[in-house]
Amino acid sequence: MSTTTSADVIVVGSGVCGAVVAYQLAHAGASVLMLEAGPRGERSAFVQRFQALPPYNRAHGDFASPYPPSPIAPHPTYGNDDYVALKGPDAAAYRQSYLRYVGGTTWHWSGLCWRHLLVDFRLKSTYGVGRDWPIAYDELEPYYVLAESMLGVSGPNDPAQQSPAQRSAPYSMDSIAYGTADRYFSDVVNRNGYKCVPIPQAKNSRLFDGRPSCCGSNSCMPICPIGALYNGIVHVDKAVALGVKLIDNAVVYRIDTDNANRITAMHYFDRNKLSHRVAGKLFVVAANGIETPKLFLVAANTKNPHGIANSSDQVGRNMMDHPGLHLSFLSKEPMWPGHGPVQQSSIVDFRDGAFRSEYSGNRIMMNNLSMSTLAGLTALSKRLVGKKLDYEIRRRAACSVDISIGYEILPDPNNRLTLSKTKRDALGIAHPEIYYDVGDYVRKGAEKNREQLRHIASLFDATEVAITEQFNANNHIMGGTIMGDDPENSVLDRDCRTHDHANLYVASGGAMPSSSVINSTLSMVALSLRVADKAKAALA
Amino acid sequence: MRSHITQPVNSAGRNTRRRQTLFGFIALSLAPWVPAWAKGVGQTAKPSAGGSKRFIEFSKLATGHQQLDPALGTSLFAALVEQDRAFTSKLALLEQFARRRQITDVDALDAALRNSPLRDDLMFIIAAWYTGAVGTGPQAKAVTYGEALMYAPIADGSHNPGFCAGATNSWASLMRPPIDVLPKS
């Protein structure tokens, strides 16, 4: 039998976006109920599962297996997972990794906290492509500052090393020092005319907010063993300490609306498929860039037959990520990646330029993930023995370089999330399906970029140079509930409130109208903090 | 089923024992863990204590490492026997092959086995010690992480992800050791 719980604000999702919203609203005195589809897990269990992975998985980016999915809230698992059905010419490039856990996907993130450039907010006006944001950089800047201070971002305080340099406050902490590989990489490329800078990141370079400083475990993905890397669980716990009620294993599936199309209640299944009703004044959905549009479509009702917040038919459209390629090579000189955090420096020259009217910009970043396990497996595959085997492992561990490139995809309504007609989860909820085509803007940008990549490899007297052919996902999910001033072609207004429902907000990367080329989390959090302020004002 | 490390990780993320990740439950449970199909099959052998000792002795030749951990050897041997019912027989053939030719180093053994199917079995043994796992790909059964021999030749230039390396920024002063000098074991 359904029971009803109520609060001023119902927050759906306990990842970093939902957590900071819940925390801010509770801090302002609101009663907040937070619903999380996934279970609660413990850091020590994640660490132990990571250390127990088969060597192949440790060497090939298995960040998912330490987090087994809940039977009632599936999420993508490692390998050829089919929870999210993918279609289209670049289907494989949208194989996202995300978690449905208390604390969300920032359990396994690299912690990179880039800001968008000023021009990224005016892409259409400046370059005639994509969309403009309904707000300008200046309107988001105070929230970037707040997000950086809440997450604890270490970054370069020298403006010459910042991208962008338009900042009203310093970083919370100085940058974490480069390891041997980032030092060598940035020295070489900077000597040769590139601009490679320290990446701002939510990792402590000193004691901060009661959490320890980085111990160089080099396992930010899939898990920081000590919590020096910010995880969403930080603000989940802070919110709960302020009185927020958190219910885990609570899968929202139904949304009720009244005659004015305001949200009156949401319904969730618990692990026994018992249904519960929650009522509130305001509702904030922060359920991840895939799960949020999925929920809105699943929850279609009589008054909203095409889905919640979907009078524009834009829910689930404009799905974005940063399509990526990888450059790999063996450097002549040993670099020994693996000291310090997993990603530390990036070439930022091609974030912007007049070329963006024709093709995508890019971000070129050396991965500082340890190559030791991959080196061992590769050397063994050559059937070497004895000292030859040892020297080959050593050469590959020291000289292997992996560079990750991200491109700027444009919002395309055809890149669309829909509900599977054939696949349902244990609760009977449809799986998501996504059609994905990175588009000619990205393909042309990648072609132009290949020459840059070959040049960079040449600076290292590289051998075994390889650039991947197929685009890969980067797990930066954006666009499915896009924001804009026109209710005809957007889901959210400039405050990330749904055009259709006066008391329903979205706190998610899904709001972002342009992707830029850099990790999306800080912008997601900044938007979420802005949502919290708008919700506070609406409650007043 | 996924293997789990049973050793505790302390609050600093460091393993409290030198032997970082010997999966205790495997070591404890595999000794009597002989598949039903293996019992009474003529060409198979239980992972007995004697078999384990012979495996470790041969592994010194196969890996070139004279100091091999007996507990890890026992676990690897059990996992190899579990994976391949004929492993004990193959091990005996490899031992016999080396003994008859009086081979005392792995390079000579590898060269002598060039045209023999036993070379694959030699590679399995080397791979088990070097990766700390038995099998390949995502299906491999992990037995150890920190004690895998592939980390020995890079011990001066690398550390195992998932374990704390040191104080913040301690890596700022690290040098890049040359690739043509192996660390002293």
What does this structure look like?
The complex is a heterodimer of chains A (540) and B (185). Chain A has 540 residues and is α/β, with parallel strands linked by helices. Chain A has helices at 16-27, 43-51, 55-59, 123-127, 137-151, 180-191, 233-241, 291-298, 372-381, 386-399, 439-458, 521-539; strands at 4-12, 32-35, 85-87, 196-198, 245-247, 251-257, 263-269, 275-285, 324-330, 343-347, 362-367, 400-407, 417-424, 430-435, 463-467, 504-506. With 185 residues, chain B is mainly α. Chain B has a two-stranded antiparallel ribbon with strand order 1-2. The longest helix of chain B is centred in the N-terminal third of the chain and has 15 residues, at 49-63. Chains A and B meet through helix 2, helix 3, helix 9 and helix 10 of A and helix 5, helix 6 and strand 2 of B.
* Unreliable stretches of chain B: 1-45
| Mass-distribution shape of chain A | globular
Unreliably modeled segments of chain A: none
Question: What can be said about the biggest beta sheet of chain A?
Answer: 7 strands, mixed
* Average of pLDDT of chain B: 81
**Order of strands in the sheet with the most strands of chain B?**
1-2
Our measurement of the CA-to-CA distance between the termini of chain A, rounded to an integer number of angstroms, reads 34 Å
How is this structure best summarized?
By secondary structure, chain A is of the alpha/beta class. Helix content of chain A is 26%, strand content 18%.
